[in-house]
Specification:
Length: 169
Protein backbone atom coordinates (compact mmCIF):
# COMPACT_ATOMS: atom_id res chain seq x y z
CA UNK A 1 0.00 0.00 0.00
CA UNK A 2 1.45 3.36 -1.04
CA UNK A 3 1.32 6.32 1.31
CA UNK A 4 -0.76 9.38 0.49
CA UNK A 5 0.70 12.89 0.46
CA UNK A 6 -0.91 13.44 3.87
CA UNK A 7 0.90 10.37 5.28
CA UNK A 8 4.22 11.52 3.81
CA UNK A 9 3.83 15.01 5.33
CA UNK A 10 2.96 13.42 8.68
CA UNK A 11 6.11 11.27 8.54
CA UNK A 12 8.16 14.33 7.58
CA UNK A 13 6.82 16.28 10.56
CA UNK A 14 7.50 13.43 12.97
CA UNK A 15 11.02 12.89 11.58
CA UNK A 16 11.88 16.58 11.29
CA UNK A 17 13.61 16.93 14.72
CA UNK A 18 15.99 14.04 13.93
CA UNK A 19 16.72 15.44 10.46
CA UNK A 20 17.36 18.89 11.93
CA UNK A 21 19.82 17.42 14.48
CA UNK A 22 21.51 15.50 11.67
CA UNK A 23 21.88 18.67 9.57
CA UNK A 24 23.03 20.83 12.51
CA UNK A 25 25.69 18.25 13.30
CA UNK A 26 26.92 18.16 9.70
CA UNK A 27 26.67 21.88 8.86
CA UNK A 28 27.22 23.38 12.32
CA UNK A 29 24.77 26.20 11.66
CA UNK A 30 21.20 26.28 12.98
CA UNK A 31 19.99 28.76 10.35
CA UNK A 32 21.39 26.79 7.43
CA UNK A 33 19.97 23.57 8.86
CA UNK A 34 16.54 25.22 9.06
CA UNK A 35 16.87 26.40 5.44
CA UNK A 36 17.77 22.89 4.30
CA UNK A 37 14.77 21.48 6.19
CA UNK A 38 12.61 23.84 4.14
CA UNK A 39 14.28 22.60 0.95
CA UNK A 40 13.51 19.01 1.96
CA UNK A 41 9.88 19.92 2.61
CA UNK A 42 9.63 21.48 -0.86
CA UNK A 43 11.06 18.32 -2.40
CA UNK A 44 8.44 16.06 -0.83
CA UNK A 45 6.35 16.39 -3.98
CA UNK A 46 9.24 14.79 -5.92
CA UNK A 47 8.88 11.54 -4.00
CA UNK A 48 7.54 9.36 -6.82
CA UNK A 49 6.36 6.66 -6.80
CA UNK A 50 4.95 6.94 -3.28
CA UNK A 51 6.86 4.66 -0.92
CA UNK A 52 5.25 1.59 0.61
CA UNK A 53 6.57 1.99 4.15
CA UNK A 54 7.42 4.64 6.71
CA UNK A 55 11.02 3.43 6.74
CA UNK A 56 11.30 4.14 2.99
CA UNK A 57 10.02 7.68 3.52
CA UNK A 58 12.47 8.27 6.37
CA UNK A 59 15.35 6.82 4.34
CA UNK A 60 14.48 9.15 1.47
CA UNK A 61 14.29 12.14 3.83
CA UNK A 62 17.73 11.42 5.30
CA UNK A 63 19.21 10.76 1.84
CA UNK A 64 17.94 14.14 0.62
CA UNK A 65 19.23 15.79 3.82
CA UNK A 66 22.63 14.20 3.30
CA UNK A 67 22.79 15.29 -0.36
CA UNK A 68 21.70 18.86 0.44
CA UNK A 69 24.24 19.16 3.24
CA UNK A 70 27.02 17.88 0.97
CA UNK A 71 26.01 20.36 -1.73
CA UNK A 72 26.02 23.16 0.84
CA UNK A 73 29.45 22.17 2.19
CA UNK A 74 30.90 21.94 -1.34
CA UNK A 75 29.54 25.39 -2.17
CA UNK A 76 30.99 26.82 1.05
CA UNK A 77 34.35 25.22 0.30
CA UNK A 78 34.32 26.65 -3.22
CA UNK A 79 33.49 30.14 -1.91
CA UNK A 80 36.33 29.97 0.61
CA UNK A 81 38.72 28.79 -2.10
CA UNK A 82 37.69 31.70 -4.33
CA UNK A 83 38.06 34.19 -1.51
CA UNK A 84 41.47 32.81 -0.67
CA UNK A 85 42.49 32.79 -4.33
CA UNK A 86 41.47 36.39 -4.96
CA UNK A 87 42.03 37.95 -1.58
CA UNK A 88 44.78 35.77 -0.15
CA UNK A 89 45.69 35.53 3.50
CA UNK A 90 45.59 38.62 5.63
CA UNK A 91 49.37 38.33 5.82
CA UNK A 92 49.48 38.95 2.05
CA UNK A 93 47.71 42.29 2.41
CA UNK A 94 49.87 45.38 2.72
CA UNK A 95 48.45 47.25 5.69
CA UNK A 96 49.97 50.48 4.45
CA UNK A 97 48.53 50.29 0.93
CA UNK A 98 48.53 53.64 -0.75
CA UNK A 99 45.18 55.37 -1.23
CA UNK A 100 45.87 55.38 -4.97
CA UNK A 101 46.00 51.58 -4.99
CA UNK A 102 42.70 51.40 -3.09
CA UNK A 103 41.05 53.81 -5.52
CA UNK A 104 42.44 51.83 -8.45
CA UNK A 105 41.06 48.57 -7.04
CA UNK A 106 37.65 50.18 -6.46
CA UNK A 107 37.61 51.47 -10.02
CA UNK A 108 38.53 48.03 -11.36
CA UNK A 109 35.76 46.48 -9.26
CA UNK A 110 33.29 49.02 -10.64
CA UNK A 111 34.28 48.11 -14.22
CA UNK A 112 33.80 44.41 -13.50
CA UNK A 113 30.41 45.00 -11.83
CA UNK A 114 29.29 47.05 -14.81
CA UNK A 115 30.49 44.35 -17.20
CA UNK A 116 28.61 41.68 -15.24
CA UNK A 117 25.45 43.79 -15.22
CA UNK A 118 25.73 44.16 -19.02
CA UNK A 119 25.72 40.39 -19.59
CA UNK A 120 22.51 38.73 -20.77
CA UNK A 121 20.73 36.91 -17.92
CA UNK A 122 21.52 33.39 -19.08
CA UNK A 123 25.14 34.26 -19.77
CA UNK A 124 25.51 35.76 -16.27
CA UNK A 125 23.83 32.74 -14.71
CA UNK A 126 26.19 30.36 -16.51
CA UNK A 127 29.17 32.38 -15.28
CA UNK A 128 27.80 32.31 -11.71
CA UNK A 129 27.13 28.57 -11.76
CA UNK A 130 30.58 27.86 -13.17
CA UNK A 131 32.77 30.21 -11.16
CA UNK A 132 30.87 30.63 -7.88
CA UNK A 133 28.93 27.37 -7.51
CA UNK A 134 31.73 25.33 -9.11
CA UNK A 135 29.44 23.32 -11.39
CA UNK A 136 30.83 21.57 -14.45
CA UNK A 137 29.67 22.47 -17.95
CA UNK A 138 27.61 19.26 -18.10
CA UNK A 139 25.93 20.01 -14.75
CA UNK A 140 25.11 23.55 -15.87
CA UNK A 141 23.69 22.28 -19.16
CA UNK A 142 21.44 19.80 -17.35
CA UNK A 143 20.30 22.37 -14.80
CA UNK A 144 19.46 25.00 -17.42
CA UNK A 145 18.24 22.44 -19.99
CA UNK A 146 20.63 23.64 -22.67
CA UNK A 147 23.50 22.02 -24.59
CA UNK A 148 27.00 21.74 -23.18
CA UNK A 149 28.41 23.55 -26.22
CA UNK A 150 26.05 26.48 -25.56
CA UNK A 151 27.30 26.60 -21.95
CA UNK A 152 30.89 26.70 -23.21
CA UNK A 153 30.13 29.44 -25.73
CA UNK A 154 28.26 31.59 -23.22
CA UNK A 155 30.97 31.12 -20.58
CA UNK A 156 33.65 32.14 -23.08
CA UNK A 157 31.56 35.16 -24.04
CA UNK A 158 31.14 36.19 -20.38
CA UNK A 159 34.82 35.79 -19.56
CA UNK A 160 35.88 37.71 -22.67
CA UNK A 161 33.45 40.51 -21.83
CA UNK A 162 34.81 40.77 -18.27
CA UNK A 163 38.44 40.63 -19.50
CA UNK A 164 37.77 43.43 -21.97
CA UNK A 165 36.19 45.53 -19.20
CA UNK A 166 39.29 45.11 -17.03
CA UNK A 167 41.72 45.70 -19.92
CA UNK A 168 39.91 48.84 -21.10
CA UNK A 169 40.83 50.73 -17.94
Amino acid sequence: MAFSDHDIYRIFLSTRPQIQRFLRHRIRCDDTAADLIQDIFLRLTLLKPPPASEIEVQAWLFKVASNLSLDHLRTQKRRYELLDQYLGDETDIDASAAPERTAEAQEQLQHIQTALADLPDQCAEILYLSRIEGLSHVQIAKQLKISTSWVEKQLAKALLHCRQAVDSQ
